[in-house]
Design a protein that fits this description.
The complex is a heterodimer of chains A (226) and B (93). In chain A, 29% of the residues lie in helices and 20% in strands. Chain A is built from six helices and eight strands; from the N terminus they run αβαβαββαββααββ. An eight-stranded mixed β-sheet of chain A has the order 3-2-1-4-5-6-7-8, sandwiched between helices. The longest helix of chain A has 19 residues, at 179-197. The radius of gyration of chain A is 17 Å and the shape is globular. Chain A starts with 13 loop residues before the first helix and ends with a strand. The termini of chain B are far apart. Classes of the chains: A alpha/beta (226), B alpha+beta (93). The interface between A and B is large, with 47 and 27 residues.
């Protein structure tokens, strides 16, 4: 066991602790959700993160994307993210992938989970197709203003994002976002992902978690395929 | 028959309401439910959910957890005990 994980050992069984250290994930997007997810996952001591993003750091990213500062403007997000995370000297391997998510990309063949860290439903639907094709659980999250949602998509087992959010891929405009709200949604995604990977009960299967941080309320809504 | 309509996200914030229950005589379709909501919320829902007489892209309407775009859209029949969930999805990251 990694020597810095002592404080989380009792939360899991011996087998689960071992499994967490073998976990490989793909994070699709190195923006607000993706940087928060990566931060949480390396602190949990997972084995490897493939971090996908083809963008450079821009000024409007700095209100919520944890690994970048003004000195990084114009630099590759995934390279900055790798440098930032590697500086902690923790053992998780960070693999930066400068690619845009589209249907032609090759999903790494050693991953156990795919985390949605995207900023639009059009690409989310593509990512979901990739996850279903590769038969890998897909952990959806989205955030706008004080509100967000999380869902777990398991191939051959749950309803698809594309069914529930039909039409959302045509929504236009740039969502307003604040950092603490992004962190809440990303943290719930990571927790759900870990639970799925460890075959825990009480995961968000066929349920949509609707988070309202203005009203401090969290509600589960049943979702069904058509 | 009883129908429960739940609002989430910006709908809830704008209307300062988490939803409404209706006790209605006879069958009803989604368009008629939206008309009814408009009466109670000053035309808010036809503005948010409809565009040129069709369901506006980007607003989610679930009937018992199913997106009505995969049912009968505005003609979707609503039955006793049904739950209608309305929200704009959060797209950002």
């Amino acid at each position: 066991m990694k020597d810095y994980l002592q404080r989380q050992v009792e939360i899991f069984t011996k087998e689960e602790n071992k499994k967490i250290e073998e976990l490989n994930v793909m994070i699709a997007g190195a923006g607000g959700l993706g940087t928060n997810q990566a931060q949480q996952l390396i602190r949990m001591g997972i084995n490897k993160i493939y971090l996908y993003d083809n963008d450079i750091v821009e000024l409007t990213n700095l209100n919520r994307q944890l690994f970048y500062g003004k000195k990084d403007l114009g630099k590759s997000k995934v390279e900055c993210a790798k440098n930032h995370l590697d500086n902690f000297g923790l053992d998780t391997e960070i693999v930066p992938v400068e690619e845009t998510i589209d249907i032609n990309i090759e999903v790494p063949n050693d991953i156990h989970l795919i985390f949605d860290a995207l900023d639009n439903f059009k690409t989310r639907f593509v990512l979901e197709d990739l996850a279903l094709e590769a038969e890998i659980p897909f952990i959806h999250g989205g955030i706008e203003s004080w509100y967000g949602q999380v869902a777990v998509i398991i191939p051959e087992e749950t309803t698809r994002l594309k069914d529930v959010f039909s039409g959302a891929d045509k929504k236009e405009g740039t969502p307003s976002i604040i950092s603490p709200a992004v962190s809440v949604i990303a943290s719930i995604q990571v927790l759900e992902g870990i639970k799925v990977y460890l075959n825990k009960e009480n995961i968000l299967k066929n349920k949509l978690l609707l988070v309202d941080l203005d009203a401090c309320s969290v509600e589960k809504v049943n979702i069904k395929s058509t | 028959m009883k129908i429960e309509v739940k609002f989430y996200s910006l709908f809830r914030l704008n209307l300062k309401s988490s939803g409404i229950e209706y006790d209605i005589d006879g069958a009803i379709i989604l368009q008629e439910l939206i008309d009814k909501l408009d009466e109670d919320f000053e035309g808010y829902f036809s503005e948010k959910l409809l565009d040129s007489g069709e369901i506006r892209t980007g607003s989610i309407i679930l009937l018992n957890g199913k997106n009505v775009l995969h049912l009968d859209k505005l003609n979707t029949k609503i039955n006793d005990g049904d739950i209608v969930t309305l929200f704009p999805p959060s797209a950002g990251g």
